[in-house]
Amino acid sequence: MAKIQENGFDGKLPLGAWVKAGCIAGFAGGLAEVLVMGIYCGVSALSGITILSLITATFAPASFAFGALGAFDGLVIHLALSVAIGAGFAIFQYLSHKDRVVVSYPFVVVTGALTLAGIWAFNFLILLPRINPAFAAYVPLAPSFVSKLSFGISLGLLPRILAGSALRELVKPLAMAERGN
To answer: What is the domain extent for residue 140?
Structure first.
């Protein structure tokens, strides 16, 4: 398992710490996608509201998806899926780093980008044309691919978040000692 050896703390973090870090990295990746697509919508004729409503339409009837809260629901759905992807990615990284002494930042970034490129290919080339052809037709391939890559690269935050978790574990005994516990 990946670890940080410092001041007597071996840095072995349990799976739960990895999953929490993955959820945070996944949320950051979801926000990165929203940012990239928001910029693209700002320089093109695409509507971010329509994109978010089309996300909702993948999971709910059109009458709901294009209603008052359809775009908001699309954002919530998108971010929830992003967190789930981040958690799954963290489990994969936990298993990949089980026998390593340190977390490999390049490995995390590369596998993150490749994972999200694979998810993009599956979604846009196989799944969405079947279950939500309106979404697949409305959102251009190139900016959607760039947004997925931004998500994948954001998963590179995982080692940084884990390092913060390890540091907190290291500081806990010191803080307790200061309080006299």
So the answer is: 15-179
